[in-house]
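Predict structure. Chain length: 551.
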Amino acid sequence: MTTFPVGEQTHRAVLPQQPALESVRADTRRSTDETAHGLPATAAGTGGEHGRGETGGHRVRPRRRHAESAAVAVETAEFGSGDAPTDHTYTGGVGASRVFVLARDGRPLMPCHPARARELLTNGRAVVHRRIPFTIRLKDRMRADSEVDGVQLRIDPGSKATGFALTDVKTEICDRGEAVLVRRGLVTAELRHRGDQIRLCMKRRAVYRSRRRSVNLRHRAPRSNNRSRPEGWLPPSLRHRVDTTLSLVNRFCRYAPVTEVHVEDVAFDTHSMSTGKQLRGAEHQNGRLAGTDARAYLVAAWGRACAYCGATGVPLNTDHIHPSSRGGSSRITNLVPACVPCNQAKGKTSVAEFLAHRPDRLAEILAQTRPPLRDAAVMNATRRQLIEALGLLGRPVRSWPGGRTQRNRTAMGLAKTHTIDALAVGDLDRENGGRIVRVPARVLVVKATGRGSYARTTPDRFGFPRLRRARTKQHFGYVTGDLVRATVPTGKWAGTWKGRITVRARGQHTLTSPTGRFGVSYRNLRLLQRGDGYAYDVRQEPVPQPSRKTG
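Prediction complete.
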């Protein structure tokens, strides 16, 4: 969750933005987009050449003087918004994330620069449509009066997080005088899933139900195994990843003129990953457990001795090196044979704590462990269903291999993140001069939080009801997750704060700030945006600034 202290002097309806490079008259009808990019280099009425395509006529006083020479223009774009001409020395720029723009009828237009959004709001030509992601709606422009080229949505799916990037394609003239197509990043977002939380909740619920069915009822028959699963069924933790990704894609399509969707399609060979080498053909049938089972393999591998104390000739159990209660997997590399006393003494303690007095034995056990393959299995199970769900949006969907994404990112010299990978998805045509010339400096972080719980009671550690929850989620007009502006008149937290709240039935809600959490009465709150099951934050993209040109 994020809180925005009121500290920047800007329009009262706009969240704090980065300093604007310029303010342009970009709302001309029939323009290429809402920032007026793509117009001829010499704009009528400006008295000079401008690479950003400003239009003539009456305009507000610019916040920064435009560059008067080509060299200054390149430097200004390179260290400002990142929209610089392409040449053999340019390595890409970093710029402010664009603002979503809607027409008067609610249909999406091309995103605009934050400076242009502030100008439209100040002049009364637009209103705030949504706070996060920040979206404005024009009051005097219809979709039919604008020329919209469209943008591309690029997706980099992941097990724990998924990256999104809205891009457009721009034609530029290289130093050889040839026209090349370059890719510009407009908006990037990172969706953080809560599949691990759902899996733990489902596991806890299963343990509660199993205990209630079996405790002191030894005569009770087990539950009938007659539950059928429809075709394409996924566990809730995996279905969540597909549904939340599709939900965010639908939101991007509502706020931006998305014309096509590009998604990375990657399949992992878990067997080759477990052996550490590429397997081919019949080698996949000759794994570590070929012709045996897990228990027999472990007993033979450890010489029929306990892995912790070395005792022989005693009954052996199968123990998890990394306890399953702490997220450990049942992969064969996470299992060892253990005698009954060691197994009971270790319990859910980590192996590093249990064998702290025997470092040699600890090193021998840790040498056989391997990273779990849970994330790779998640991607294999959900990749096809995600692509099929995206195909129902009514827009062209193209899938690309992960190797192409890696080559594009490496060739551009960019760091490894989900959002940058999303920006590099698809064909870049580097042989003919294609490249990524702009990366948004700030990434919108979207964390799935859910909309509450269906349970009406809070159980204790044995699974029995401990507290009874309220039947209504709304208290004094607010719901947990609402974005509000809190005005605290006195006390330690006196001032104005923006953030998300956790409601209480007594009306003293809780607001989370970067320095802590504090209570605030509902009388001192003003609703900015209803909670939608997500928490929002902003982070900086780890992109190095391009070096200055010396020649």
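Summary: DSSP finds twelve helices and 22 strands in the chain.
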